Amino acid sequence: MTSRTTALTTAAHEAGEARGGISNPILGMLLFITSEIMFFAGLFAAYFNVRAAAPAWPPLEFQDKLHILPLVGPATVLLISSSFTVQLGVWAIRRGDRTGLNRAIAVTLVLGVTFLVMQAMDYLILYSEGVRLDAGTFGTTYYTLTGFHGAHVLGGVIMLGVILYRGMAGQFSARHHDAVEATSLYWHFVDVVWVALFSTLYLLPGR
Amino acid sequence: MATTALTPAATTYRTGLYEWLTTTDHKKIGIMYLVNSFTFFLIGGLLALAVRAELAQPGIQFFKEETYNQLFTMHASLMLFLFIIPILAGFGNYVVPLMIGAPDMAFPRINALSFWMLPLAGILMSSGFLVTGGTAAAGWTSYSPLAQEKYSGMGTDLWILAVTLVGTSSILGAVNFLVTIFKMRAPGMTMFRLPILVWTVLVTSVLVLMATPVLTSGLIMLFIDRNYGGHFFDPATGGNAILWQNVFWFYSHPAVYIMILPAMGIISEVLPVFSRKPLFGYKAFIFATSGIGALGFSVWAHHMFTTGSVYLPFFSLMTFLIAVPTGVKMFNWIATLWRGQLTFSTPLIYALGFLSMFLIGGINGAFSASVPVDFALHDTYWVVAHIHYVLFGGSVFGVFAGIYYWFPKMFGRRLNETLGKVQFVIMFIGFNLTFFPMHVLGISGMPRRIADYSSTAGWNDLNLAATIGSFLIAVSVLPFLWNVFITLRSGEPAGDDPWQANTLEWATSSPPPPYNFDHLPEIRSERPLFDQRHATPAGTGH
After folding, report:
1. What interhelical angle do B65-77 and B108-126 show, nearest 10?
2. How confident is the model at residue B501, as a pLDDT?
3. Does residue B281 form part of some domain?
4. Hey, which of A92, B45, B219, B235 would disulfide with A100, CB 3.0 to 4.6 Å?
5. What pLDDT score was predicted for residue B315?
6. Is residue B314 part of a domain?
7. From the CB of residue B348, how many other CB atoms can be counted at a distance below 10 Å?
8. Which of A3, A31, A61 is the best substitution to test chain B (most B C-beta atoms within 10 A)?
9. Residues with pLDDT less than 50, chain B
10. ipTM of the complex model
């Protein structure tokens, strides 16, 4: 061979760890989250579009239908808390504390499922009060935005379940826990979307 | 003495159907992308022939109006979503890891997933032909209220699902490309030594990542409107029909660049190799590509000038601005050819076809950016001429340049030059005969998406010419298919580097082995193979 060739250390290269920096799965998740932000941006744009065009918002027949208490407010607190618990799990595994990781992920999982249950209960109440998917633009936008957020929470819950299963199988260590980092990023994202959604639907003054 | 037999199963390269169905090799996935996309190109082409047959003369000859609507809707949808976008992703899949000296894409299994969504999407979309009411028929733009439940049947729901699948495939592919390009480059392959094609795939992936999810949100809204009594696009109940157009074009204008940028990348690889010169203005080209990507997000409403609900001066200005980076690229290409030592092989001829036809497509596009002109030309055959000069004259000629250029790498054999040139001549004549008259038809007011026209409007001859041209295009595909067939059977062996090329994919064998490289040349510029060929012997200094 000529001297002008460079031997490749294929294994290290393939793992994307040749030159350090952000790992492939984490970068992949960040990029995927970028696309998810644009997805929700589309939904938010639609919401504000029909909201701005409406003579009054919420429309007269839906005034006083959305209530922060007793369900949505506490559910919000739970979901925001779950961002802290998942981060505790990440910090635990960075120290190599597998038990701490599993505990934190289990708590996060329970909080996520509780949020979904509370959202479902809230849906049932609203539905019985006539706020339905086909009830004008108000119902359509409300259920589409919160529903797709809920679907993303469900996706996050499934990912947390996988992390918990793998964590209990002892697959993560202080060096190797990209899946934990990626899942926590996704969970934070889901949380941030809810903060934006909650602020828009419940805190933004009507007109 | 007990020994453990090591099964080499993991390293053997199985062949056969099972291997293709389960592969995560970017090269096999890339080839499957190309084959799948080309199949939909043929189907979409047959639909176009049906459309042109109906339009050959005034009156209704072959199809009812409802059927005609399905034909042009499916022609556009298959060509855009299942041919142009995926075939360029297919080139990216095959070539990008090789060009950056990587063993595979960053996420090989996600790569396989991205591919397998496409045939499924194509089958879903086409299965509209089997259901009551037929396929989607509201045009590929599916404007409300036409695409709503009241006017469109189940075919539209299948269309929505299919386009959502294609979008998801694109998004996953974009994540994969970006991570691959950012993280998997060989030592020495800095960002400003990346081949131009890799840069165009990078910018395209950013566009996909930012634009496609917005279309997905719109498709979901449309689906909810149609199936669950939603009101997003229904003005009667507080919705907004223009909202769909905004959301749709926020994706579909960047999508135009998704459909052209990688083709620009392909010819930017071909032109330097066959001119025996480096690409003129490498960095300018990269900045122009990035500029097109950035500006691409601020021009979507130029498709909506006539709605009366967009701010015309802004979108007109931004649209004209796009001509600047595009013009930079034209000069890059022309200056690359200038005083080059040209070898008129088939890839170069297709690249020249791209240059000339895309120039026309760019100029007639800038025309329509002018608001008063657009008011006159909106929804006429002028628009049909424009899109085909860009996407056929541009992208499809670029695709063929790419096929002729990389076929030797993919299969180890060179396509026949004579047949390639015969194909080019027939296709070039057929293309111009089909689409140039549409400029005149558009200016004289012929609306698009109609099955019939008045025999006294003076449109008869030009329509007949366009129909003859379209059949010529169809004929030109035959020598290509024959060429591929005979070359795979008994083509001229290509060797590793038949074109004396510049980029890393030519440093490995043809076809490349699994995981691509044993050794890489030293990478000191964007043309590592050129450097290697012209290197001073080791030890003698520079």
Report:
1. 170
2. 95
3. yes
4. A92
5. 94
6. yes
7. 23
8. A31
9. 1-3, 5-9, 541-542
10. 0.92
